[in-house]
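Reader question, answered in our methods column.
A reader sent in the components of a multi-part assembly and asked whether the whole thing could be modeled at once rather than chain by chain. We filled in our standard form and ran it. Here is what they sent:
COMPLEX SIZE: two components
ENTRIES:
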Amino acid sequence: MSMNVLTGRAGATASASRRPTARRVRGLLWLTLRQNRAVLWTLAVLVVLVAADLLWIHIASRHVVGVLRRTGCYYPETWSNGQCWTLLSPINRPTYWYVSILQPAVTALPLLIGVFIGAPLLAQEYERGTIRLIRAQSVSPRRWLASRLAVPGLAVLAATGVLAALMSWVWWVDIVHGPIAFDPPFQFFTYPALGVAPVAWSLFALALGVLIGQLVRRTLPAMFLTGALVAIMYGLVRWARPYFYPLVDQVVPLNEAHPTNSWLIDRGVVMADGSRVSTDVCLGTVRCDGATASWIQYHPAAHLVPIQLVEAALLLVLTAVALAVVFRRMRP
Amino acid sequence: MDDPTTVPPALEAVGLGKQYRGDWALRDCDFAVPAGRICGVVGPNGAGKSTLLGLAARLLAPTEGELRVLGEPATAPELRARVAYVAQDKPLYPGFTVAETLRLGSELNPAWDDEMAQQIVEQGELKQRARIGSLSGGQRTRVSLALALGKRPDLLLLDEPMADLDPLARHQLMGTLMAEAAERGTTIVLSSHILPELDGVIDFLLLVQRGRIRLAGDLEDILDGHQLLTGPAEAAGADALPAEVLVEQRVGGRRATALVRTGEPLDGPWEGGRPGLEDLLLGYLRAPAATGPGTTPGEATPMNDEVAA
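And here is the structure of the entire assembly that came back:
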């Protein structure tokens, strides 16, 4: 380098050679991109890995289905045939990957985003005192905060958006319409990995983590607290989820099952006098012996989208509230 | 030097106070630091020096009273670009390199002087690609000062800036600061409890003790207005010197010394002399109950609670 040049010129040449290449991104954006370098790389690698995995799942199951169709082994009736069973078995691996690995991983993603991206975001600035370094610059702290949140916020939005779209696509094309996998949308690890749920939950967890970090101002406690609160919030929302959209309430012939892929909330029997008794009460008693029909309360698979939209709207309102509090608490 | 009638004071406090969870870190402060001065804020640990600088740097909001900075209320957004501040713990992003830290300064400050900042860093032989986290305390201080000076501020607030520098670096950086102050008329307010580091540097003094301003004024005027007396031990006593001028007296062996707040000769077997900066400060610091000219009569009682710095 220019170390052996005269000191006066060293600075000039150094800055001259640095400027044209490094100055494409400027101001606060440069700082926030630099500060979020690790986060951006992690999210990018994550998206690439999961997308590659999903692509493999899609291609592998397509291939198996193609083989089954060509050999007349597509329909379940034929699977008792040993040859068909052998041709069918390769589909277990992609299906296993999707249902047992990717779905739980995507379900856990919002929690991880809240804990590892949201909570340290401001907690670390306070813990290391760098918030005072920022306050000593010419830029307004609220503008800095806006930029500090926008970059990881948009990155999380983009990454979870891509993941959710790919997860939903593979679920729709290869899993729920595939020949063997049984994966109703309202299950514990299925619902949060579909549609807008990963995006809304990730943004909410991120904002909650930022708020907790700002309040606690210590990185590790903020991470633990954020993790606990996201989990509690998930429990509460899951408990309230059946009521986000009106239930279908039907009287059906005695002991008829609820429709495939639907979410059964409650069921029971209708007595001769027209009164309803829940199945829980019937068990082990003779109270329900004179039942004439069954009743079921459930969400059909078609309710997945409206329920997810209501849930996402609720979460986005909470996200906005958390962000408003964060901004208000940042002294200008 | 600028005409003091047209240039507003760099710092002007009226009844300024700051309370932390019930304890007053600073209270009833009235003082003005004229622009263009190099002002030393001195006092023992926990006296309120850092609080004072934090208020001036708008890191803290005052609980009571008012602080004006460069003629503006301390909250004025225009001050962001005009005031630079280096906190006592020299916060920097540990994962950034030296070059990236200086780039932070250039990206976030419109009046950034890259040459100035680079020069300070190069003077310390810091590698541009060295991570801040791998630097020593003194090297981080140097980078923090480069960041503050590169901003080209009108007011530079430095909280214990030299504490972890070796004598050579201290000398170099003090020289840089003085040159900057002389060249651009920058007002520098620096706190310290290391007195030798201020001698010959500051020309204005704020003595902070237990959250109060004990002395505020031009250093030469203050020194001229005090005498360090020495005399035989018998001369010292409860009423040997007028109480209204006596700051502190002590007897060591057969000699007694006393610091008095008057430039006029006093009666008695005393030999008077102009005190040095250190004599003056030690005299005041040893006698916490006494009042100084910077205080109003009502606040003679010192605070009992230990205050946070």
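What stands out: The helical segments of chain B are 49-56, 79-82, 98-108, 114-123, 137-150, 167-184, 219-224, 277-286. Residues 11 and 33 of chain B are 5 Å apart (CA to CA).
Send us your own complexes using the same form.
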